[in-house]
């Protein structure tokens, strides 16, 4: 279907399940299905109640795989690299999500208007256009927002809180984006280039 080649027949069989949607390995406890038997084995650990604690910070995980990926946060190791742009990640699932930028894959579609999105969170935010839902309201003035991050930025107007501080000049900002923009003054960075000249 997609022209991809594999060194072993088993890998091709597993890959074909992406296209067919086949998930032959089913959890007897909750009914969730998986394309690969090892995914089911890992999932079963959730039901066993067994915990895998991190020796560095004490945070617990339901699988050894999740713990190993968490360790990368402490070591700074980013073993999962994108073959297209070279960007590296601590977690394989984060790389999978990143890869959608290159493949232009948008698996999440809106049932109302058909618009497609790369991430489920973006679809959830978009759906509020149709439902008119604004779940996050300001306790001071009552203004409502579609996302908690937009509410947080708004609340800083009332509190005067500016948690993002410039190390060079001490100026503070409400958002990290505003600080990043400001930092370009000090670095001399000019990321927007004219394509004509």
UniProtKB/TrEMBL annotation:
UniProt cross-references to SUPFAM superfamilies, sorted A to Z: beta-beta-alpha zinc fingers (SSF57667)
Organism domain of life: Eukaryota
Subcellular location: Nucleus
One Gene Ontology cellular component annotation held by this UniProt entry: nucleus
Gene3D superfamilies noted in UniProt: Classic Zinc Finger
GO molecular function (one): DNA-binding transcription factor activity
Family: Belongs to the krueppel C2H2-type zinc-finger protein family.
Protein name: ZN135 protein
Species per Swiss-Prot/TrEMBL record: Tricholaema leucomelas
Gene from which the chain derives: Znf135_2
